[in-house]
Amino acid sequence: MLDTSLVADSLRRCALFAHAGDDALRALADGMRSRQFRRGEVVFHEGDAGDSLQVVTSGSVKIVLSSRGGEEAIIATLHPGEFFGELALLDGAPRSTTATAIEPTETLSLSRDAFLELLRRDPQIVEALLVSLAEVVRRLTGHVEELHFVDLPGRLAKLIARLGREQSPQGSGRVELTWPYTQSDLAAMVGGTRQSVNRVLSDLVEEGLLTTERDRLVIHDLAALERRGDR
Q1: What stretch of H or E contains 217?
Q2: Residues 163 and 223 grouped into a single domain
Q3: What confidence score (pLDDT) does residue 158 get?
Q4: Same domain, 34 and 142
Q5: In whole angstroms, what is the distance from residue 211 CA to residue 156 CA?
């Protein structure tokens, strides 16, 4: 059985429910269930029915588009406090992407009926959802822009710098990141091949901007890495 107080604390970190008071969060928590996923385990497949909203409470999830030939494009990576799966709940269409755990991950799941009922009775959740959808559109627009106008080294530098900036919003120097991503993941994020991403990553290490370890990546100068991405 879920600990309602712990679930409420997790929901408080999610922008969709940040406005809610303690009583509302506890009531919401009563209607959710916890799901655990191993690294590489699929949360849902493209084409599945959209039956639930997922809120990440630990770990991370990648949102993937796949080609008929098995190639992947990662259009988003999500971390604790972020949510996904809302589009299929809104229009009733099948899932348009596949969601996969990047590392051991836990989510809180809210049924479609419960989610739609929340939207009907809470205008602030509707407003938060619209803001989130606008952010998704802006992020995808920026991704398309980079694919067309920025070379691969710049795209990879920008990606790693963004991850560093998320962890250290005001930082400019050294940032250490937990690093669950494979080189195949990086390639799918920036639109390159695994081999080309490996070469560029090695170049960034040789330039003294990064150090890579098994489960950790160190950015030695975040501001310099951001400038590298803007060349």
Answers
A1: strand 216-219
A2: yes
A3: 96
A4: yes
A5: 14
pLDDT at res. 23 = 85
Whole-number Cα distances in Å, 62 to 12, 23, 26: 22, 32, 28
At 1 the pLDDT is 59
C-beta of residue 222 within 8 angstroms of C-beta of residue 173 = yes
CA 183 vs CA 56, 118, 160, 169, 197: distances in Å = 23, 40, 12, 25, 7
Separation of alpha carbons 211 and 218, rounded Å? 5
Mean predicted confidence (pLDDT) in 84-95: 95
- Our CA angle for 224, 229, 231, nearest 5°, is 95
Place of tokens 């991370």: 60
Three-state SS at 114:
helix
- Helix extents (H) in the chain: 4-12, 22-30, 86-91, 112-121, 123-149, 152-167, 183-190, 194-206, 222-229
Domain that holds residue 35: 4-147
Q: What is the phi-psi region of residue 83: left when phi exceeds 0, alpha when psi lies from -120 to 50, beta otherwise?
A: beta
